[in-house]
Specification:
32% helix; alpha/beta; 15 strands; nine-stranded mixed beta sheet; single chain; four-stranded mixed beta sheet
Length: 343
Amino acid sequence: MAEFLSFGEIMLRLKSPGHERFFQSPAFEATFGGGEANVAVALSNYGLSSAFVTALPDNDIGQHAINEVRRFGVDTSMIRRSGDRVGIYYLESGANQRPSKVVYDRAHSAICECGPGDFDWPTIFEGAKWLHITGITPALSQSAADLSLECLKEAKKAGVTVSCDFNFRGKLWKYGKAAPEVMTELVRYVDIGIANEEDCQKSLDISVDVDVETGELDTAKYEALSEKVLALYPDMRTIAITLRESQSADRNGWSACLRDREQGFKLSRHYEITDIVDRVGGGDSFASALIYGLNAYDDKQQSLEFAVAASCLKHSILGDFNRVSVDEVQKLMAGDGSGRVQR
């Protein structure tokens, strides 16, 4: 059985070609992606024993989604075959001052219609040491939120470490609950929290007067924000917060901070990312690399630097998945960011 599990939804990703607007040409690039699947794939790429837990319909599209994550070495044996739909998201890549745009088509997908009792958690968690979940699945439906809470409770019973990317998605919270009503309960079971400033504000209703719209960062405020999160959730051991400075769709500053109860507050190296190829999945690439780093390094600063370097590299890769190796990340951590051809 796999040691590192990720639970959530994989979607069909339909992207307009290049930087075209929707239906500018009658074509979409069809791939697969989704926060939790992205994490499972990256962990497998780093050489960890990784499994993805979800529900998918027993049809050709569901099978192709399974095949896609399986080819990266991810264990798919715990995927439930049920429901009639694979969730879809449409992506239009922005450029310069025009932002990227996402349209979701996820209602009544297989995972949306699952609920408590649909997964055999004791069997799933047998031999597991880590579970990753996000704030996206609880946003899909009441039954998916109830299932997510059941998953976390069962993980804690099994002695499994839980990481959660709070991941606020305003377009998804449509079933009558505000994000904090659900997420503040779920996060009580989380050991490692992962977020950006908006996630803390809108998923947990935690704020220290950080303006998410200006694109400018004040790291002292993030130090205070991380302290406040750990104070409100005493069972959480670590909180990591990504810091993105969005000058345009093509150019972002990228860094992160981390607060650990044992080693205190850490701030990462800053990367200036220009000519972004695809920033979708950037947060997931940070989460997966942080999980790897926390298991590979004793020093939390090293764990944080690995996560930031890996997610920096993701901005150069088309698609949801971060297709980088540990060696490539470590080279960037060591300062090799020239991009010279390797012969």
